[in-house]
Each structure stands twice: as C-alpha cells, then as structure tokens.
Design brief:
Layout (H helix, E strand, L loop, with lengths): L5 E5 L11 H9 L4 E8 L5 E3 L6 H4 L10 H4 L20 H6 L6 E6 L6 H10 L7 E5 L2 H10 L4 E6 L13 H11 L3 E5 L6 H9 L3 E5 L4 H10 L3 E4 L2 H9 L8
Parallel strand pairs: 1-2, 1-9, 2-4, 4-5, 5-6, 6-7, 7-8, 8-9
Antiparallel strand pairs: 2-3
Helix pairs in contact: 6-7, 9-10
C-alpha cells in the first residue's frame, strides 16, 4: 500500500496526551503512527528540548522564556496538569530522550523553532542517537534556515513549511511556480503545507513531480484525510493518529510495516 500517505503524529498523539512529551510520543507509536513530529528549542545552557512555544506559560501556567532558562529549571515544570489530573507530572523532554524511545523504522519530523544557533547542538544530538538519519527530516518555516541546513548537512532531509491560509493558486500572492523555484534554490527535500481547500490535484501532482516529499498539516477530520489520500500526498500530520488511520485504512488501522 505504497500509495497510502504516511501518518505523522503532531507533537505526538497530542489530542490525547500532553504535546511534545514522552507520553504523547509513546501513545503515537501505540496508535500506529508511521512517525512523529516534534518541535525543538535551544535552552540557555545549550540543550535541545522538545517544546513548541517561546515560553512555558501556555502549557505550564508559569512563564519562563525557554531561550533564557537552563534545562534543569525547565525540567521541573509540570506540562501535563493543564489537560487534567491524569496527565499531571508530564515533563519537558530532551530531544535525545525522545529519540532513545523511537521504534525502528519510524519517521521523525523535527520542527526547528529556534534560530540558527540550534543547528550545531541539534546535529550533535542526531549524530549521537541510534536513529538512522534516513528516518529523520528537519522542518522550518524559514527558507533560509532550510538552505543553511542543507549546506551544513546535505545528507539530512530538510523540508520547507508554508502556512498559506488563503487559496494560493488564486488570490494569494504566493504562487506555485514561486514555491517550486524556492524549493530548488534552497535544495529542500520536502514541502509542508497547511491543510487548505485550495490544495488541489494539479498542485499535488506538480509538486510530487518535482521529486519532493509533500506533507499536509494538521489534519484531524476523517473526510479531509480521505481527500488528501485520494490526491496522493506523501504524508499527513495529525493530532489523532488512530482516528486518521481508521479513516484512511478502515478498521485495520494498524498498518503493516
């Protein structure tokens, strides 16, 4: 079933567990996800952590700027209680911890949320992990960051993400030809597009013919998952991997690898 898109768990199975935590990633594997997406930031003492926001207020109820706080202090925060008592005690993990628990053969999408200072520490973590580098893709919304990643480590996959909220084949200033030209210029291996009704079959076909991976994010509605499957996209990112797999594959929602 090579024509079925890979299902990537957004910040882990974040619909049912605290985002970017070991429990969320473990749940994603249990639910049959083909891969997980995690956000990474650099702490004040140079540690690469799995965390999305610039500060901790939304998930911890205490505002600490990640870039100016040491990991020892960040690791003491409870980032699960805001979702209920059953999630109390969830901690912010190091990327190295997360990678140590990855099953063989699964994909890892690493979304860089810090500036270029994170690149060298991130590559050190990747090099030290037992995860095969072919399983990894680095993501950034900054095209120049993608270009820099490919210059520093051409063997690693790097994807450019776009958050285009309008129909960029029509009213938007962002045109398909411009996107494809940028992909070539920055040597991107993939393109990540925010789920949108403007993503049509001819667009998908043109992108895939450019020999890049096409990821759609973040899709939780079953009908949308089936639409993108029909369009032939490479992967779909979701907060609910079990539900998405059921929508795509039916009752046999655990894919055979």
């Amino acid at each position: 079933m090579n024509d079925i898109p890979k299902v990537i768990a957004h910040r882990g199975a974040s619909a049912n567990a605290p985002e970017n935590t070991l429990p969320a990633f473990a749940l994603a594997w249990k639910e049959g996800a083909d891969g997980v997406e995690c956000d990474v930031r650099l702490t004040a003492d140079g540690q690469v952590i799995c965390f999305h926001d610039a500060d901790t207020e939304r998930v911890a109820g205490q505002k600490l700027e990640v870039a100016s706080t040491d990991y020892a202090k960040l690791s003491e925060l409870d980032v699960g209680s805001h979702l209920g008592a059953s999630h109390a005690g969830a901690e912010i993990p190091l990327l190295s911890e997360m990678m140590a628990h990855m099953p063989p053969g699964k994909r890892l999408f690493i979304d860089l949320k810090s500036d270029a200072a994170i690149i060298d520490p991130l590559l050190e973590v990747i090099d030290a992990a037992r995860v095969e580098q072919r399983q990894i893709a680095l993501l950034s919304f900054d095209s120049e960051m993608v270009k820099l990643l490919k210059e520093q480590r051409p063997s690693l996959k790097a994807y450019w993400s776009i958050d285009a909220k309008s129909n960029w084949l029509g009213r938007s200033q962002l045109k398909l030809a411009d996107v494809q030209d940028t992909l070539v210029d920055i040597r991107a291996d993939g393109l990540g597009l925010r789920s949108h009704s403007g993503i049509k079959r001819d667009m998908v076909k043109s992108i895939l013919e450019s020999d890049v991976h096409l990821n759609i994010w973040t899709v939780d509605a079953p009908q949308e998952a089936r639409r993108y499957t029909g369009l032939g996209v490479s992967s779909i990112t979701t907060n609910s991997p079990r539900e998405l797999l059921q929508a795509i594959l039916g009752k046999n929602s655990i894919r055979n690898h």
